[in-house]
Amino acid sequence: MGRHPRIDARSTGVLVASNVLGGVGVASGIAVGGLLAERLGGTSVAGLGQAAGVLGAAVAAVPLAALAARRGRRWSLAGGYAVAVLGAVVVVTSAVLSQLVLLFVGLGLFGVAQAVNLQARYAAADGIAPAGRARVMSVVLWATTIGSVAGPNLTAVGARVGEGVGVPALAGPYLFSVVAFAGASVAVALLFRPLPVASDPAGDLPAGTTPLTASPVGDPPTVAPSPVPPGTPPPRVGALTALRRAAADPVMRLGVGLLAISHAVMVMVMVMTPLHMQHGGMSLELVGVVISLHVLGMYALSPVLGWLADRWGPLRLAAGGLGVLAVAVTLGFVAAASPGSGTVTATALVVLGLGWSAGVIASSAILATAPGDIRLPLQGVTDAGMSYAGAAAAALAGPVLAAGGFRGVNVAAALLLLPALVLLAGAMRTDRRGLAGDGRADRPGALETA
């Protein structure tokens, strides 16, 4: 498969629109999911609602990637949104019947939408020249900002709509989720025409070669002649096989590890920030403002970071992202010493979101260069690892806060960065794809918009 230097503007627009709708659907439900769980099961189970959604996203990531490999991105994305529609319907039904277990099942299915929103960024990059992949992915990621901001603001309206049709008020926003997910599914199924992704097993290496062959320990992977005739579809590869093959390449190891670590650092600090602020006497209104600023930091500048990844190379962006995360946890440590300072806390959370965004975009750009036969399953299993890492970080953050306060949380987050630095050093030392700095947007093959 040749690399397309031009963007299919319509297909990219469809992905942006579907991510906006998907973001609205996710944010509308997440805003009240914990409250609904508390109403049906008490305060002790309120956090399990969020956990069910995260688990649903993690479990769905690999099957969605496998479906994309078999049937194409269009059916994977559309089918995932359809499952999320079912999840939202089950949530509403659980509220009507006051069934807690049914609620958790619905929230797990509902969480599939988050996995779809994440995998849409990879769909945007399929078939695009390396010089422009990060920018395309970052634009689709940026679309999530709209949904993340608009969704929670529909909570009150959704409650009134729900009561008007005989549904409990807290379940009303999920009616908007049903409509949003259904619209995203139909738009992708009818309008999205993805470029093929699995016909080039050599990824971005020269034609007629197969990357990631076994090498002695300590040596970079070698490139061996391929016995497969040109044009022959590559055999399907499972997620674990893709992960094992990627582990042989230091650059791919960074792509996999960076996504999980960036997400874990962000989640660990973010989920404990409201508690830190409340303990410092700050108002709920200020907590809401700080979290909103954090979300803007996560997504608003992603097109700029995508441009930087294409111009400077994703490895340099990865290094910058880790540096920004280090600054964020340092600011968080300072904020812990001044519990009443909302300004320092807000600055730390904005910087934290920016570092997360740089890590996600750099990792996504690296994974988009994986060989064609492992690209889809590797992307799926890496997204699953991202969700599992976030869930684990959230679970550990509470005990860390209890033992060491908000300072301890930021120290723990800083320690999580150390493995990423080791992975980055190995990738920079053995980079053979030019990802450390020749990804210039102005070189031949840079993007044009169709």
TrEMBL record:
Gene Ontology MF terms: transmembrane transporter activity
Manganese keyword on record: no
GO cellular component: plasma membrane
Domain of life from the UniProt record: Bacteria
PROSITE patterns (UniProt xref): MFS
Transmembrane spans: 12-36, 48-68, 75-94, 100-118, 139-159, 171-192, 254-275, 287-308, 315-338, 344-368, 380-402, 408-427
Bias (Pro residues) ranges: 218-232
Domain Major facilitator superfamily (MFS) profile: 250-450
Name assigned to this protein: Putative MFS-type transporter YdeG
The species this protein was found in: Cellulomonas aerilata
Gene name, Swiss-Prot/TrEMBL: ydeG
